[in-house]
Write a structure and sequence with these properties.
By secondary structure, the chain is an alpha+beta fold. The protein has 2 helices and 10 strands. It is 27% helix and 28% strand. Bound molecules: dinuclear copper ion.
């Protein structure tokens, strides 16, 4: 190769490198803009669904009065569990549910942030005072699950445990026949 060929090849290489460097800078700038837009958009838009509740009045009226806590069979046949967390227990302390049934958990806190975790399942939600937490759950097998508080809620946190008892669908239906709210407290 001649000296001229060499310098020509070098010029081509330099142009190619510059072109690809420009492209990579454009890609990086585009990604940064996209991330900035997504972050700002998420921060400025309200969440899709937020349900608020006055934590100081739970025991006085509304969905979370003590007589309404526990497991309810709704008019449409679906099952709803309503529970509250407070320092340092859950009400009800033992949640009774039917197996092989779609269940909606609705829960909130009467004081500070607690968490509900049902061991051996993917149920794990925070209970934030002022907000209703909703989580769908379904248990295939009968049996018992421990339900520890999953957010540090002060010195009694380690002792804050509940239980979930999953019973046969037919057995649950028989117990639910008379209406009211079911739980397994004291069983
Ligand atoms: Cu309640 Cu930790």
């Amino acid at each position: 190769m001649t000296v001229q060929d060499d310098s020509h090849a070098a010029a081509v290489a330099e142009r190619t490198e510059k072109r690809w460097a420009t492209i990579s800078v454009i890609v990086i700038v585009a990604l940064v803009l996209l991330a900035t837009f997504a972050g700002l958009h998420q921060a400025t838009m309200p969440q899709g669904r937020v349900e608020t509740i006055d934590p100081t009045r739970l025991h006085l009226a509304g969905e979370f009065v003590e007589s309404n806590l526990g497991t309810a069979t709704e008019p449409d046949g679906s099952v709803t569990v309503r529970a509250i967390g407070q320092q340092y227990s859950f009400t009800p302390a033992c949640i009774l549910v039917p197996a092989q049934t779609p269940i909606m958990l609705r829960a909130t806190s009467a004081d500070v942030i607690h968490g509900i975790l049902i061991q051996g399942t993917n149920v794990n939600t925070m209970l934030v005072p002022g907000y209703v937490s909703e989580q769908f759950m379904r248990f295939e097998k009968t049996g018992e699950h421990l339900m520890p508080c999953q957010e540090f809620c002060s010195f009694g946190h380690e002792g804050m445990w509940g239980k979930v008892k999953v019973i046969d669908k037919a057995e649950f239906a028989a117990r639910a026949k008379n209406g009211g709210r079911l739980s397994c407290v004291g069983e």
